Amino acid sequence: MYQKENLRLISAKNNTSLTSIWIPPATGRTKLNVYIAYTNVATDIGIGYICRDSAGKFIFAVCDTDASESSDEAECRGLLTTGRQGVGQQLTPVEIESDSKGANDHL
């Protein structure tokens, strides 16, 4: 079970350029970057996430699908799926980065 002090959620700023900069987690932490694709209620959502350590070393990546009634729900489902994967991998402490401020605020 994760203790609150072992989990930090980060809201990424919208990046309008074609390039992005990955910001590593604090030393000794791992980071899960989460990306969600939502089209509409009739279409499955896409969930993608990648895990790296503080040196930027690749640990794992996953693509998944789920159903959702709204884009906000899709973002929350994506964060939940990612968190469960982190628990399954026994990652601690971990940072989860998402571009959904609303979903992060709910957590």
TrEMBL record:
| Any one GO molecular-function label of the UniProt entry | RNA-DNA hybrid ribonuclease activity
Show where the RNase H type-1 domain sits.
44-102
Q: InterPro entries, per this entry? A: RNase_H-like_EbsB-rel (IPR052929), RNaseH_domain (IPR002156)
Q: Where is this region: Disordered?
A: 88-107
Superkingdom of origin organism? Eukaryota
Which stretches does UniProt call biased (Basic and acidic residues)? 98-107
Q: What is this protein called in UniProt?
A: RNase H type-1 domain-containing protein
